[in-house]
Write a structure and sequence with these properties.
Elements lengths: L1 E7 L4 H12 L6 E6 L16 E7 L12 H9 L8 E8 L9 H12 L3 E2 L4 E4 L6 H21 L1
Parallel strand pairs: 1-2, 1-3, 3-4, 4-5, 4-6
The structure holds flavin mononucleotide.
Amino acid sequence: MKLKILVGTMTSTADYVAQAIQMDCADLVSDIEVLTMDGLDIQAFDAQPGEDALYLICTSTYGSGDVPDNARALYDSLDTQPKFLGHVRYGVMALGDRTYLQTFCFGGQKFDERLQGLGAQRVGEVWCHDASSGTLAEVEGTVWCREWLVQALAASTA
Ligand SMILES: Cc1cc2nc3c(=O)[nH]c(=O)nc-3n(C[C@H](O)[C@H](O)[C@H](O)COP(=O)(O)O)c2cc1C
């Protein structure tokens, strides 16, 4: 299986999470690619039907519950250049801060809504990290991701 991690970030926390996963989960998935979302559009979801590929959106939240600047073009393209993504399997790691009560982790949740709208298949629940909790996103995120990958691998061989 191939895992493509798409990173939306302003101050690199989501990038640290993706890099930690790339190192820590190599025993589960041999091919893990980390891509920042800069300059990407919907073509990033280039898996062919029948291909054993998995996508992981790893993004923070900025402004008033918005996606980070580097994620804007990809996020917008899911609306302006829509195509059916029924064969795409994905997960979401949403980074946020609970002090932003009304918009906690909206960046990741917004991606999830758009991908669902295009027919993509989410594996597992959206994972949220709270920066105000004092825990490290890369530590907690790696633990979550290992469980998520086991779930995804089981589904792909079923
Ligand atoms: C100006 C600013 C606005 C933010 N807005 C939100 C928000 O609306 N909702 C939320 O859950 N987190 C919000 N956050 C928290 C970040 O998403 C969080 O700190 C995250 O871990 C940053 O990850 P990054 O370094 O990958 O960008 C905001 C942070 C800043 C500095």
